[in-house]
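Q: Given only this backbone (415 positions), what sequence would you predict?
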């Protein structure tokens, strides 16, 4: 849930609760004031009745008006003086609310109970009108708060969303710092400044790391070439016996693996840094056929049987990375196969499957795509499938390995 939406909900719920509590309190306060006013009127009538009895020693005449009633009833014992709410019949059989004061009075040796009733209809009507006006004000206030939150707060948060969009578009390969966001909100300005400083530092560190990797790779080529040339001269020396050829060949192989390792690590670094951002339409089927032709010699040497089932599939990706992806998959299937085994390649609209026969892995299958993971008898660098995974991660392709019935299978799902 977005912060803006959550803030709106919390603010709206808090406003509704506060207004509801305020409305309830306001209702009872207004009602108390209006009822207190009725009680004052009843006390005034009580004082008039008592004054009439005291001066004339007789009860005043009963009164029955629309808004007020005074009546007397003989009583055997005094009643407690109290104010109550009651309902009395009016014309047309209607029952209306009244506020009633009841008390006892002695007149000429007789005890009477006095009932003074004051109509609450106008009070109820006034209270209802006040509550309707209050409800209307609450609805208007909530509407105003909702619109203000949607319009004003959205504008206030705009610099934050612009900064967030700049972070999402940030790419090390472009080496462009984030644009400056002008805002009068201190927190957003501090956030923008901190992010720009961070991205500038990242760009500098990236340039240093990239320069180190390029320079190290370049400088390593020179001593490797020197060692290789010296080995060429050494192996041509007629003074060497045949027993020296085997260690010289081992040095040749070690130099070849070192050169391949250097190239693979440099390639991984470039892929991770998104240096292959050019995209083109790559047709995988003919590219697979071309790779199989290039690998024809090792296939014949291992007496492998290759089965292909290729549908037409065009992908938007870097052509060089597509070539590396297929080369590593097919080379891996050939290298880790068994003599006289088979290789199956199936290409569908959204997937590529490469299977090869072979013995079970002698390491944890969950680490097969990790760097420098290889079997005990593997002659590779342990980076081939790591490069495959890095390419798939860059393009958000699904990658999976499985083994069943002496067959290794690698599936790539193109999203």
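A: Predicted residues:
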């Amino acid at each position: 849930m977005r912060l803006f939406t959550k803030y709106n909900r919390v603010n709206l719920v808090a406003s509704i609760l506060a207004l509801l509590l305020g409305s309830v309190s306001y209702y009872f306060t207004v009602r108390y004031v209006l009822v207190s006013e009725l009680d004052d009127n009843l006390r005034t009538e009580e004082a008039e009745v008592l004054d009439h009895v005291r001066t004339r020693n007789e009860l005043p005449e009963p009164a029955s008006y629309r808004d007020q009633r005074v009546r007397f009833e003989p009583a055997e014992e005094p009643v407690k003086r109290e104010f109550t709410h009651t309902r009395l019949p009016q014309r047309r059989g209607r029952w209306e609310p009244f506020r009633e004061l009841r008390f006892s009075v002695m007149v000429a040796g007789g005890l009477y109970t006095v009932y003074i009733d004051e109509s609450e209809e106008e009070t109820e009507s006034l209270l209802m009108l006040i509550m309707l006006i209050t409800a209307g004000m609450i609805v208007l206030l909530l509407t105003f708060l909702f619109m203000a939150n949607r319009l004003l707060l959205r504008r206030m948060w705009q610099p934050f969303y612009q900064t967030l969009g700049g972070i999402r578009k940030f790419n090390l390969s472009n080496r462009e710092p984030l644009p400056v966001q002008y805002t009068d909100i201190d927190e957003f300005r501090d956030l923008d400044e901190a992010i720009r400083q961070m991205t500038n530092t990242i760009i500098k560190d990236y340039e240093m790391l990239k320069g180190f990797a390029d320079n190290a790779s370049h400088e390593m080529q020179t001593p490797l070439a020197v060692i290789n040339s010296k080995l060429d001269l050494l192996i041509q020396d007629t003074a060497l016996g045949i027993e020296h050829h085997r260690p010289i060949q081992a040095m040749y192989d070690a130099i070849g693996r070192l050169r391949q390792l250097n190239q693979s690590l440099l390639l991984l670094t470039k892929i991770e840094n998104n240096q292959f951002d050019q995209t083109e339409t790559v047709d995988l089927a003919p590219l697979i056929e071309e790779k199989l032709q290039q690998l024809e010699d090792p296939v014949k040497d291992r007496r492998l049987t290759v089965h292909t089932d290729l549908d037409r599939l065009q992908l938007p990706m870097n052509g060089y990375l597509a070539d590396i992806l297929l080369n590593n998959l097919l080379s891996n299937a050939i290298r880790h196969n068994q003599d006289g085994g088979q290789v199956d390649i199936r290409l569908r609209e959204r997937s590529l499957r490469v299977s090869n026969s072979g013995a079970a892995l002698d390491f944890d299958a969950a680490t097969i795509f990790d760097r420098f993971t290889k079997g005990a008898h593997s002659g590779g660098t342990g980076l081939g499938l790591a490069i495959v995974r890095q390419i798939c991660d860059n393009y958000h392709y699904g990658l999976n390995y499985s083994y069943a019935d002496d067959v290794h299978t690698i599936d790539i799902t193109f999203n």
